[in-house]
Write the C-alpha cells for this entry.
Amino acid sequence: MRAAFRNTIAAAVAAAIAVSGANAAHAQQDVELAPVLTNTTTLVDSDGDGLPDIWEEEGIVLADGTVIPLPDWGADPNRPDIFLQLNWMASEYDTLGCDTNAARECAEANRTSYAPSKQSLDDLVDLFDDHGIALHIDAGEHYTNIPNYTTYFGGETLDYRDAYFNPSRHEAFQLIDTINELGERANIFRPGVLGDRMRAGSNATGLSLVGDNAFYVANPGGRANEEQVRNSILHEFGHTLGLRHWGAAKYVNDIVEGSPMQDGYHSVMNYNHQFNYFNYSEQPYFADTPAGKVFIPADWDCLVLNSPRIGAYAESIGARAEIAEVEVEAIEQPEEIVEVEQPEAVEVAEDHPMVALVPAEEIDAADAEAQPGEVPAEQPKDEPVKAEAKAQAKAQAKVDDAKVEEVTPAKADTPKQSNNQPNIAIIIGGVIAALAALGIGAAFFAMR
C-alpha cells in the first residue's frame, strides 16, 4: 500500500501550498511529480516515522554512496525520529562583501541575520521531545543536536536576495527544487529555508508544501523578533507534517483557504495564535464547516511523519559512524592501606586468682599509687608500726610482684625453670601473701 501511495501520489497533495498570512487559494494548482522510487515497501517501521526499523538499528548507505549511520545519530526504531536541515540567507551586507569592499550600496545595506537563534532551536527540540518525538537538526556549525554528526549541510549557505521566489516559476516547483537539492539525503532529511520576503511587496511569513517536506520562513525586512521567527518555523514545519490552518488536513478538507480562523482551535497553526502560542493543539475541538460541526482531533495526534520521500530507498543496509576513540590516561590508584585491627586489651587483674583474694578496701592508698615493681618508701623508724600492718604491707608487695610476674613479658636474661618445673617459691609466696591479707599469716608461721 505504501508503494502504491508513493507511486500514484497526487500532484495536489505533493504540491498543495499553504501560505502563512496570505490567501493561498490561487496556489492550489496541480503540479506533476515523478513517482518516488522505493525499495522499502516490505520493511517494518514500528514507530511510523518513515524510517524502517532496520535502518535505525543498523544504518544505511544511500544510492550515491552517502553513509547514514542512523543508530549513531540517535535514531531509535521504537520512537519517532525527524531529521530537519535548516539553511538561511546571508545578510545583504555580507553578500555585497561590505566588510572588505566599500561599495556604494553598503551604506544602506541590510545587515539582518536570518539565522534562527540557538535558543529557538533548543525550544523546538524540547517541544517535540515533550511529545515523544526526537527532532534532529542540522543547522550547520551554528547548531546541531545530532551526536557523532561531523559533516554539515545546513547553515548560512544562501546569498541574500530581497525576494526568495522567482516570479517566473511556480513557487511549488521551487520548493520541490529545495528537496531535490538534498539528493539522496532526501530519504532522511526535510529542508527548511529562512530569508527575507517571499516575493516583492509581500509581508507573508512563510510558504509550505502540505504533506511534503519543504518550507520557507520569511522575515520581511528583518523586522521579526526571535520568538516570531521560532513560531513561524513551527507553523510552516507543521504544514509539511500534514496540518492546515484549522487542524489536520484530512479532517478539514472542506474548509477552503481564506475562511475565518476557528476560535476553538488553540494551535500555532491558527493565524490568531501564530505568534502567541508555541505549540500545536493538544486538545480536540469542533470546527464549523460547510457540512456542519466537525470533530477535529488534536494536532499532535494527527502528525504525518512517514511522508512519501522519507525512508524510500537505500542501496545497502549497515553503516556506522567513525567515532574517534579518546585515549584516557590511566589514573594511578593510591596504595591500599590495610587497617590492622589492634587486639583488645586484656584486663588480667579482674580474673587473677591472687588479686581476687585481696579486698580492695584493705589496700593502703600509698601502695595503690605505686607502679608495679616499685617499692613503697620505708616508714620512719621512730613511727610505731603494728606487726599486723607490716605483715599486710609485705603481703601486698608480694601480690604486686605476682601481678608483674603475670602481666610483664619475661626478659631475655630471666633464668628459665629447669625441666619446665613450676616455680615453687612463687606459688608459696603467693599463698603466704593471701593468708597474710586475711589476717591468718601469724598462725601459719606459728605452725611451722
